[in-house]
């Protein structure tokens, strides 16, 4: 069944897949070429689908007019640290949730799931007040703490699916050979789990990299802003400088795209490990 | 942020009751050792502390604000007002318009996402050269934040210099440029198109994964029985993966309902509040400093989603029961 395909069906399939590829990529293409147009060409009519001259003017003015380099550094720092810590913590809890039966297990899982269903805005005000008391407003460490907490539930559930697929004879053998449970986890399981851990890390990183509303609430000083906060500032102002904006958009998208391209097969596996078994 | 996270909720449910049997046996052997309890505690504690302190505590604290007069502009009076914040919301005629918008936003986004995503998944089952590259390329939208997608589409839907007007005119579909984001009707259409573009990928991944769980023998049997493609799709494929489909739809509904980012970046709820959904309205109330009312709105969202989820899950269960 799967292996036979009528020529007509094949044509429809290829046409559909091709069309969707164009639709998927066109907005990215459009923002990319807009970022390379001269500011004059951006607002000229008729529109050009290929810049007449490639100009880096938008990028230059973006870095001149705003502290964009600082925002990039902040975003990289906060996202990398938060994603790393969250992935490590999630790994431990996912391991326990996959390997052990204990009384409060269902409650813990439910508590993790519920975090995904409640509008984040309910927590925004109290989080702000809490960070004021902890003197962590306008502090990158404070933002990292919150991001770690935000990332943990999802990556725990994701990694739990991966752990469940690995036979536990593996670490039992290691433990019989004299490894502690912790040692068995890191020396034997982690190497086998590499795809899952990479996928979880990338998800966490992309989540932190893209997060807007928490950082807008907590980061006020310009030197502390992350990229999304800065972008939000650009569109809040009365007129939008579309040249700099498109340059900023490209610089925001590229790192996550590189990560995604590098690991997309892990991500698909990560998302589907559970569903496939169902 | 919750974009990716929605999948999380689907997984345990789809695999519920089927955790591999092997670990069960071996853990029972050590069931009463203290060491085991210590391992569980030590491994779970960091996660639980983080989630409790930075997620649950603020969430519960936020919920109680819904019953108080909590306005950042005047924090001298944070009295309990009972259901006052809720009364104000229900008395506001905007609320009903915005509720309607939220439903429209969910329904009109999810239907095309589902159909296109399903079609992609069906057609991606067949192996072809560069399939991996193709998948990676169409998954890219998923790596971009909803907020940035809003900015992208805001630029493309620009009334004067937007590429969408230009393409439509080149194709001869319209004669004059449409000021997409300046008119309520077209603005809503525009935000829904942006959301659809973003969400198709997710459906495609989830459905593709589910399709891979359908054993080939089932298709072979269907082919032997001479059932056609459409028949096979509706009598075999869809019933076989109906649990995943149903859960994916549920999670998407919850998520889209709760997802302000695209609208916030494209229109900010305008023109004249006409593209507000509940969560974008909540943001603008938060920005005015009225946390009491915003929290009340948040609780209303929660109740709506819980009631919806409960009814939806019951409906699925009944349908399943009827079939088996």
TrEMBL record, chain A:
<dbReference type="GO" id="GO:0005886">
    <property type="term" value="C:plasma membrane"/>
</dbReference>
<dbReference type="Pfam" id="PF00528">
    <property type="entry name" value="BPD_transp_1"/>
</dbReference>
<dbReference type="GO" id="GO:0055085">
    <property type="term" value="P:transmembrane transport"/>
</dbReference>
<keyword id="KW-1133">Transmembrane helix</keyword>
<feature type="transmembrane region" description="Helical">
    <location>
        <begin position="184"/>
        <end position="206"/>
    </location>
</feature>
<keyword id="KW-0472">Membrane</keyword>
<keyword id="KW-0812">Transmembrane</keyword>
<keyword id="KW-0813">Transport</keyword>
<feature type="transmembrane region" description="Helical">
    <location>
        <begin position="12"/>
        <end position="33"/>
    </location>
</feature>
<dbReference type="InterPro" id="IPR035906">
    <property type="entry name" value="MetI-like_sf"/>
</dbReference>
<dbReference type="InterPro" id="IPR000515">
    <property type="entry name" value="MetI-like"/>
</dbReference>
<comment type="similarity">
    <text>Belongs to the binding-protein-dependent transport system permease family. MalFG subfamily.</text>
</comment>
<feature type="transmembrane region" description="Helical">
    <location>
        <begin position="141"/>
        <end position="163"/>
    </location>
</feature>
<feature type="transmembrane region" description="Helical">
    <location>
        <begin position="247"/>
        <end position="268"/>
    </location>
</feature>
<feature type="transmembrane region" description="Helical">
    <location>
        <begin position="109"/>
        <end position="129"/>
    </location>
</feature>
<protein>
    <submittedName>
        <fullName>Multiple sugar transport system permease protein</fullName>
    </submittedName>
</protein>
<feature type="transmembrane region" description="Helical">
    <location>
        <begin position="71"/>
        <end position="97"/>
    </location>
</feature>
<dbReference type="InterPro" id="IPR050901">
    <property type="entry name" value="BP-dep_ABC_trans_perm"/>
</dbReference>
<keyword id="KW-0762">Sugar transport</keyword>
<keyword id="KW-1003">Cell membrane</keyword>
<feature type="domain" description="ABC transmembrane type-1">
    <location>
        <begin position="72"/>
        <end position="263"/>
    </location>
</feature>
Automatic annotation (TrEMBL), chain B:
<dbReference type="GO" id="GO:0055085">
    <property type="term" value="P:transmembrane transport"/>
</dbReference>
<dbReference type="GO" id="GO:0005886">
    <property type="term" value="C:plasma membrane"/>
</dbReference>
<feature type="transmembrane region" description="Helical">
    <location>
        <begin position="38"/>
        <end position="57"/>
    </location>
</feature>
<dbReference type="InterPro" id="IPR035906">
    <property type="entry name" value="MetI-like_sf"/>
</dbReference>
<feature type="transmembrane region" description="Helical">
    <location>
        <begin position="232"/>
        <end position="257"/>
    </location>
</feature>
<feature type="region of interest" description="Disordered">
    <location>
        <begin position="1"/>
        <end position="29"/>
    </location>
</feature>
<keyword id="KW-0812">Transmembrane</keyword>
<feature type="domain" description="ABC transmembrane type-1">
    <location>
        <begin position="99"/>
        <end position="312"/>
    </location>
</feature>
<feature type="transmembrane region" description="Helical">
    <location>
        <begin position="103"/>
        <end position="124"/>
    </location>
</feature>
<keyword id="KW-1133">Transmembrane helix</keyword>
<keyword id="KW-0762">Sugar transport</keyword>
<protein>
    <submittedName>
        <fullName>Multiple sugar transport system permease protein</fullName>
    </submittedName>
</protein>
<feature type="transmembrane region" description="Helical">
    <location>
        <begin position="136"/>
        <end position="157"/>
    </location>
</feature>
<keyword id="KW-0472">Membrane</keyword>
<keyword id="KW-0813">Transport</keyword>
<comment type="similarity">
    <text>Belongs to the binding-protein-dependent transport system permease family.</text>
</comment>
<feature type="transmembrane region" description="Helical">
    <location>
        <begin position="296"/>
        <end position="315"/>
    </location>
</feature>
<keyword id="KW-1003">Cell membrane</keyword>
<feature type="transmembrane region" description="Helical">
    <location>
        <begin position="187"/>
        <end position="211"/>
    </location>
</feature>
<feature type="compositionally biased region" description="Polar residues">
    <location>
        <begin position="1"/>
        <end position="12"/>
    </location>
</feature>
<dbReference type="InterPro" id="IPR000515">
    <property type="entry name" value="MetI-like"/>
</dbReference>
<dbReference type="Pfam" id="PF00528">
    <property type="entry name" value="BPD_transp_1"/>
</dbReference>
């Amino acid at each position: 069944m799967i292996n036979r395909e009528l020529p007509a069906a094949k044509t429809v399939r290829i046409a559909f897949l091709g069309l969707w590829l164009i639709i998927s990529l066109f907005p990215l293409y459009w923002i990319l070429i807009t970022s390379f147009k001269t500011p004059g060409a951006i607002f000229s009519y008729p529109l050009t689908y290929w810049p007449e001259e490639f100009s880096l003017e938008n990028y230059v003015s973006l870095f001149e007019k705003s502290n964009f380099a600082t925002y990039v550094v902040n975003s990289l720092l906060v996202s990398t640290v938060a994603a790393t810590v969250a992935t490590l913590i999630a790994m431990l809890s996912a391991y326990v949730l996959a390997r052990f039966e204990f009384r409060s297990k269902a409650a813990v899982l439910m508590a993790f799931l519920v975090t995904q269903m409640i509008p984040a805005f309910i927590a925004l005000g109290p989080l702000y007040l809490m960070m004021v008391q902890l003197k962590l407003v306008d502090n990158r460490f404070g933002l990292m703490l919150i991001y770690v907490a935000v990332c943990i539930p999802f990556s725990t559930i994701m990694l739990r699916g991966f752990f469940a697929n690995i036979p536990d004879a593996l670490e039992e053998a290691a433990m019989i050979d004299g490894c502690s449970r912790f040692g068995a986890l890191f020396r034997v399981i982690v190497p086998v789990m590499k795809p899952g851990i990479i996928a979880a890390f990338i998800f966490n990183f992309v989540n932190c990299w893209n997060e807007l509303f928490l950082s807008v609430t907590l980061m006020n000083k310009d030197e502390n802003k992350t990229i999304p906060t800065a972008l939000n500032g650009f569109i809040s102002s009365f007129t939008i400088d579309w040249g700099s904006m498109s340059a900023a958009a490209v610089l925001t998208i590229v790192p996550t795209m590189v990560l995604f391209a590098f690991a997309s097969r892990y991500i698909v596996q990560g998302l589907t490990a559970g569903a496939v078994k169902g | 942020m919750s974009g990716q996270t929605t999948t999380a909720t689907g997984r345990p449910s789809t695999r519920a009751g089927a955790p591999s049997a092997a670990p069960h046996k071996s853990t029972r052997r050590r069931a009463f050792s203290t060491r085991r309890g210590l391992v569980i505690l030590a491994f779970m504690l960091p996660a639980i502390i983080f989630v409790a302190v930075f997620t649950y505590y603020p969430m519960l604290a936020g919920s109680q604000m819904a019953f108080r007069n909590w306005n950042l502009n005047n924090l001298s009076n944070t009295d309990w007002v009972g259901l006052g914040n809720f009364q104000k919301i229900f008395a506001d005629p905007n609320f009903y318009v915005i509720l309607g918008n939220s439903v429209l936003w969910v329904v009109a986004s999810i239907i095309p996402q589902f159909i296109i995503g399903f079609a992609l998944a069906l057609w991606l089952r067949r192996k072809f050269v560069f399939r991996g590259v193709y998948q990676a390329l169409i998954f890219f939208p998923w790596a971009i934040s909803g907020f940035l997608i809003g900015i992208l589409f805001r630029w493309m839907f620009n009334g004067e210099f937007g590429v969408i007007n230009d393409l439509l005119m080149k194709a001869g579909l319209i004669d004059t440029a449409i000021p997409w984001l300046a008119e309520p009707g077209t603005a809503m259409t525009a935000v829904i198109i942006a959301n659809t573009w973003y969400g198709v990928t997710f459906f495609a991944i989830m459905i593709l994964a589910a399709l891979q769980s359908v054993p080939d023998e089932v298709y072979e049997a269907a082919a032997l029985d001479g059932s056609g493609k459409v028949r096979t799709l509706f009598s075999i494929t869809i019933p076989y993966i109906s649990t995943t489909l149903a859960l994916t739809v549920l999670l998407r509904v919850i998520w889209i309902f709760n997802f302000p980012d695209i609208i916030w970046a494209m229109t900010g709820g305008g023109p004249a509040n006409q593209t507000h959904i509940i969560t974008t309205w909540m943001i603008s109330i938060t920005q005015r400093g009225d946390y009491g009312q915003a929290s009340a709105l948040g609780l209303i969202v929660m109740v709506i989603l819980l009631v919806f989820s409960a009814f939806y899950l019951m409906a699925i269960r009944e349908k399943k029961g009827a079939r088996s």
